[in-house]
Amino acid sequence: MRRLVPLLAVLALGVAACSEKEQIAEFKRGKYQGKPDTPAWDNGPLPDTFRGSQWKQGDRASWEESIKKRQLAQHEYRRIYQ
Amino acid sequence: MLLTRKATGQAASQGRLSRGVSGVPAKTMDRRTFLKRSGVGVGAGAVASQLPFSILTPAEAKEEQGKVEVKRTVCTHCSVGCSVDAVVQNGVWVRQEPVFDSPLNLGAHCAKGASVREHGMTHESHRLKYPMKLVGGKWQRLSWDQAYDEITKKLLDIRKESGPDALFVVGSSKHSNEQAMLMRKWVSLWGTNNTDHQARICHSTTVAGVAQTWGYGAMTNSYNDEQNSKSMLFLGSNAAEAHPVSMLHTLHAKENGCKVIVADPRFTRTAAKADIYVRTRSGADIPFLFGVLYHVFKNGWEDKEYIKARVYGMDEVKKEVMAKWTPDKVTEACGVSEAEVYNVAKTLAENRPGFIIWAMGQTQHTNANAVVRASNILMLALGNVGRSGGGCNIYRGHDNVQGATDVGPNPDTLPGYYPVGVPGSWTHWAGVWNIDLDWLKKRYASEAMMAKPGMTVSRWIDGVLEKNDAIDQDSNLRAIFYWGHAPNSQTRGTEMLEAMKKLDLMVVIDPYPSASAAMFAKVRKDGAYLLPAATQFETEGSVTASNRSLQWREKVIDPLFESRTDQMIMYQFAQKLGFADQFLGKKDGKQNIQLVKGKGGMDEPSMEDTLRNEINKGSWTIGYTGQSPERLQAHMRNQHQFDVKTLRAKGGKDAKTGYDLTGDYYGLPWPCYGSAAIKHPGSPNLYDNSKHVMDGGGCFRALFGVEKDGVNLLAEDGSYPKGSEITTGYPQFDHVLLKKLGWWDELTDEEKKVAEGKTWANDTSGGIQRVAMKHGCHPYGNAKARAVVWNFPDGIPQHREPLYSPRPDLVEKYPTHDDVKTFWRLPTLFKSVQQKAVKEEMHKKYPLILTSGRLVEYEGGGEETRSNPWLAELQQDNFVELNPKTAADRNVRNGEYVWVSTPTGAKIKVKAKVTEGIGPDTVFIPFHFSGWWQGEDMLPYYPEGAAPIVRGEAVNTVTTYGYDRVTMMQESKTTLCEVAKA
Amino acid sequence: MARMKFLCDAERCIECNGCVTACKNENEVPWGVNRRRVVTINDGVVGAEKSISVACMHCSDAPCMAVCPVDCFYRTDDGVVLHDKDLCIGCGYCFYACPFGAPQFPQAGAFGLRGKMDKCTFCAGGPEADRSEAEFKKYGRNRLAEGKLPACAEMCSTKALLGGDGDVIADIYRERVLRRGKGADLWGWSSAYGLPGQKPGAQPVQPQPQPSSGKS
Prior knowledge:
The structure holds three protein chains of three kinds.
Chain A: H1 4-18, H2 60-71, H3 76-80
Chain B: H1 31-36, H2 44-47, E1 68-74, E2 83-89, E3 92-98, E4 132-135, E5 138-141, H3 144-162, E6 167-170, H4 177-190, E7 195-196, H5 204-214, E8 231-235, H6 239-242, H7 246-255, E9 259-264, E10 276-279, H8 285-298, H9 304-310, E11 311-312, H10 314-324, H11 327-334, H12 338-350, E12 354-358, H13 360-363, H14 368-381, E13 391-394, H15 401-407, E14 413-414, E15 418-419, H16 423-432, H17 437-443, H18 447-451, H19 460-465, E16 479-483, H20 493-502, E17 505-510, H21 514-523, E18 528-532, E19 541-544, E20 550-553, H22 566-577, H23 580-584, E21 586-587, E22 590-591, E23 595-597, E24 603-605, H24 607-618, H25 629-637, E25 707-708, E26 711-712, H26 735-741, H27 749-755, H28 767-774, E27 785-786, H29 808-813, E28 820-823, E29 826-828, H30 831-839, H31 842-845, E30 848-853, H32 869-872, E31 879-882, H33 884-889, E32 897-901, E33 907-914, E34 922-926, E35 931-933, E36 936-937, E37 952-953, E38 975-981
Parallel strand pairs in B: 6-7, 6-16, 8-9, 8-12, 9-10, 11-27, 12-13, 16-17, 17-18, 30-34, 31-33, 35-37
Antiparallel strand pairs in B: 1-2, 2-3, 4-5, 4-18, 14-15, 19-20, 21-22, 23-24, 25-26, 28-29, 30-38, 32-33, 32-38, 35-36
Helix pairs in contact in B: 3-22, 4-15, 4-22, 4-24, 5-14, 8-11, 8-12, 8-14
Chain C: E1 4-8, H1 18-27, E2 37-41, E3 50-54, H2 63-67, E4 73-75, E5 81-83, H3 93-97, H4 133-139, H5 151-155, E6 161-165, H6 166-180, H7 189-193
């Protein structure tokens, strides 16, 4: 009997481990659940009175080009050494 | 969760996020600090639920959008002159866009410029919306007609009883050039010289001191020209907060090797960008400047050739500086060690050309007329003046303080600095204004009063309070117009309250009620009117930036609520007071200024006519004659053509008018001599004799005579503007000189008729100027700059301790001036105040130096900017900067309320801001606040709905007596105070 | 391929708050919501004071997006991180996660009730029809859809704050660094990569590139 109790204890522990769940939390990146949004270049450019830049509607490359060109206004070296 | 997750097949970006706050000393930045001020603060209740004021954007192309226009205007908040494109839809200002093309600001803005669209918002506006009258201590609405009737009746009664000098008109540095000139005219037609504006308390000492040194008292170069500079000494300027966009040019220069030196009692935001920072004592600028000059002379770093050819009196100055301003004396007086002073001198000497830059730090002292001259002398010694990249870059304050000084309401000059004491000035302007000179003379109390400079805005309160036999006019002041000016920028606020008690009439004409309304209502039950004026976005006009360029503002929107433009108000008053025709220059079948339809179809003077037919026709002395509205508007439309370093247009034609821009400097910086027809390009850098005069070149002015004590005052042989046919010095041009030179016949017959008997300054045909410049000569002569200004109280600048000085030992060595019995019509004390302070041991009771200055979020008196929620949120409490030791000694913790008291006996309640940036002997309080009075919130005294969002104590409630010996500038930069826990 | 970024050049930032009010102006953000703030380090300490303008950094791997329980965040093809306010439950978790404090909540009531999260949108609006009134009311202005860049970067007083395509920013910044003659260190480099015991803000120890002549 005295040998049985520790043996039973060890067996119980061993069995207990088998029914446990994984304790490591797994991160699952979520998927956006909100409304759809349209890219900026899908819009048509505004008249010059709004002081924006001009691009070809729907054409991403032309929008990017116009944005990058406008961005150089933040580089005063351009304006100074033009 | 984030940092311990086990990513499953995600992009390998873990670990980078911990870099988010790296490189930051934990003690000073944590997110709590970062977010502290994002909490709901003052006024949130009013604004937290604010719906965006939005307008349908054109994206919804299907509906009728209404008219969309873009108007180009200029920010109203400082003298840098940043252009703004305002998008207006159906008459509503909906968008604000940066103007990258502008050569001055390249699209950049500070907090104020980026928020100007708020001026066009009517939802929850804190504007003064309709005329109001103080009745039984409360502000009641009344109609414009009623207001006009009552005010003019009162004015005429006062005039009958006490004469025209009983009225003081405080005009505005925020008026356009046209409005400012009309203001001066209006006051003259009323019959008094008692008028003034913010320049008095801003750069009056600069204008006087600098003009007397070499000819014109304005910025010698431009903000842009700093890009061509090798060194800059900021002494008395916190440009990072007062002129933020100028730092674009400064920092660009610094990036390209320019050395930036900042000398200031505080470690300001400008100092944070300096290569060398020097802590000085407030009020001890001459010791510092001459300390630097000592080392320049000692090491032979001065530009000897330049001095010989172009400067008078430098030997005398050198003798005095070497004897008086040895390093030990310098350190004793201003607290800067010899090594630091030497370092500054060496840096300036080794890095030329260079600038000295100043604003109120130098100008607001009792001896400031001398301080600015010391700055000039330093630059002359180094040979920096009159070249690109070097000189005195004087940063003016309000958006049009330069223009208002040039052509606006000054007590001692008519537009263009023609002195009132010279009868020829009146003859000249009566001619230009097309009014009868005899009629004008009769408007004044007497011819003597007409020739006498009026009182100043810094002292109007004494005009009310002083004993009648002590003032130099018949009656005390009984009525005051605060026309576009705040009261809390003038010192001695407690006495101003006393003066308001005694006034018969106060009229405030302003887009905001201003602290004047609250102060008056606090002590009176009646006697005041508030008239809503339009802002600078609701009218057109030209404005002069600090670099002397003129820019034309287009009208963005119609005046909001019941406000009217200043020119309409002036005209309507003129009608009621009986000088409407003279106001328009209508006589003998000619009318200078046509009327145009303004708000509500009412008539108002045309701003273009005012510029073209009066300013351009009369301001020959300073060259405001070539900047016609057409040229200025062409410049505004073609800003991209102007080079940023030189401000010059290489070519280009204006698409709208065909005007050829070639050779013009942006904004035709004055002097732009001659009529628009001769197409002078403007003068970007003054006194620059590397260029032809028709190319913007120049030389020092011959204003002070031909010789002094046997020494030649004209320029030495070989010193002349490029291409000049006369290669020696010469006096100013007049008909006599032209005839002597044999050039008289080059004038047309018409020009000869007008120019006969005249000088370059009052020949309204412009012929004398035209012919002189044709020969490469400068109309005002070619002379030396004066290092010794013998007609000033101190020929060589002397250090004099402030009236309230912390150092009685220095007061003994460097005492102030003697009292003056009559100065700008008032007795003015100097020595007696200083001696009294010493005797009563004020420096023991009030051991801290109190200095005041600017914040980037606010402008001037502050009521306009503190009514803008976007700005107000950023600075919600007035505060005093205390050194940690100063605070600890008084058991004051950061953020606690304290009482700041001064020898006036008054005290103000402000929050303590404990910072190492200020030394243990000085405290600093910004001056933009008002709306509290010695601890009491003045909200009940404002008209309903028109109090600013943020209110606080005005530092000038407690500032003390002290005035400059030449210009009556107030000593707001240095006084004494004590701080105690509240 | 455009990837939108912000960079604030601490050598130029003068704490003028132009970026802050430009954002307020353009997006009509109410009192209490601060999409962009200027943070000053070592305020008043001689030689060590630096300022930097901070708003949403539009992180490539955004923590806010990762932790949001309702997944209301998305990233556009340009790299702009936006969110849908209709989904947002105001839980504030993104606020905990963000190292920059970008999420803002319009506070109302005495117990700090959070409303919908609001943050810098890189002036790209949000998931409503581009340039419509609905988009403006909820998210502020959509400047990207007008061919413009964020108002804060376009209006910066000293061109310290650069905003737009990351490659262009790198070009602009590189030119400045070359002219300054200092090493290619952003402020704070040495405390992240410097030697142990070195003071923050001190110059890095590695050899400096030679300063250019400064002329173009």
